[in-house]
Amino acid sequence: MTDYPVNMDVTPEVTGYFDPATNTISYIVRDPNSTSCAIVDSVMDMDYAAGRITFEHADTLIAEVEGKGLKLEWIIETHVHADHLSAAPYIQQKLGGKIGVGEKIMVVQETFGKIFNEGTEFQRDGSQFDALFKDGDTYQIGGMTCFAMYTPGHTPACMVHVMGNAAFTGDTLFMPDGGSARADFPGGDAGVLFDSIQKVLSLPDDMRLFMCHDYGPNGRDIAWETTVGDEKAHNIHVGAGKTREEFINFRTARDAELGMPKLIIPSLQVNMRAGHMPRDKDGNVMLKVPVNGL
User: Fold this and answer.
1) Cβ atoms of residues 75 and 98 within 8 Å
2) Is the pLDDT of residue 214 over 80?
3) For residue 223, is pLDDT > 60?
4) CA 279, CA 268: separation in Å to the nearest integer?
5) Spans of all domains in the chain
6) pLDDT tens by residue, 235-266
7) Is there a contact between 176 and 235 (Cβ–Cβ < 8 Å)?
8) pLDDT grade, residue 186 (50/70/90)?
9) What are residue 251's DSSP bridge partners?
10) Contact 225, 210 (CB under 8 A)
11) How is domain 13-271 classified at the architecture level of CATH?
C-alpha cells in the first residue's frame, strides 16, 4: 500500500471533455460537498499550419463551470505536455484559480530553454506558475484534500494528482489496452517510468484512474476511466506481473519507432511558460522551430 494520504471515502464529481484534435481529455473535478472545483489538463486550440490559436475547448469548460455556479480553485497541469497547448492562463483570466505543476518544471525549462535558445528574460525557476508541487504535497479543493505524486519517466516533471477516490494520471498510464506513454523525450527514462507506474498501482485497487489521452486502440470507442485493479490485471505494458526489464526492452524498442507529436514544437514553448505564448523582441507572439534540435 501507499504512504500517501489516500481518502477513498470522498468521491468527487468528475466530468471529462475529449478534444479529438489532440486526443486529450480535460477534466472538471468538483468537491462533492461544495461548489469548489478544479480543471485538469486544459487544451488551447491551435491550427498550426495557419499559426492561429482559438479557445473553443476551453470555452466549453468555462461555460460548464459558470453554468453550474462553481468556484474554480485550481488549474492543474499533470506535466509539460508535448502534444497540446495549455489554455490555463485564458481560463484563469475568466474564472480565477491557481495554476499548479510539479516543481521539476525547472528541469524542463532548463532543458528546453536551451533547445529553443531562449534568452535571459525567460525565467527557468517555475515562476510562471502559481504553485510548484513536491512529491506528497497536499492542497484543497473546497473541503476535499488532494495530493500530488511524483511520477517521472515520461518527462522529468510528471505528477499524478489524487483527489479523493479519483487519480489523474497524466501520461504516466493509458487505458489497459493502450499501455503506457513513451519515455524517449529529453529527460525521459523507461526504467523510471516503470517505477512511477508501480507507485500508481500501489494505490487501492478501486481507486478510479482518469487518463489524459486515449486513441481508441483497435477501433474501440474513446474511453478515459478505469481503476488501479483493472490496470494491474490487464494493462498490456505493465499488467499481469510484467517485469521492469521486460518493460524497458519493450518501451525502448517501441519508442524508436514513434514519430514526434505534430504539435510538439509549439506545445513545449507554450507549456513551459504555463500556457503563455512566447513573444519576440518587439512584443509580437512568435514561435521558434529549432531545426534538428529535438
Assistant:
1) yes
2) yes
3) yes
4) 14
5) 13-271
6) 999 999 899 999 999 999 999 999 999 999 99
7) yes
8) confident
9) none
10) yes
11) 4-Layer Sandwich (3.60)
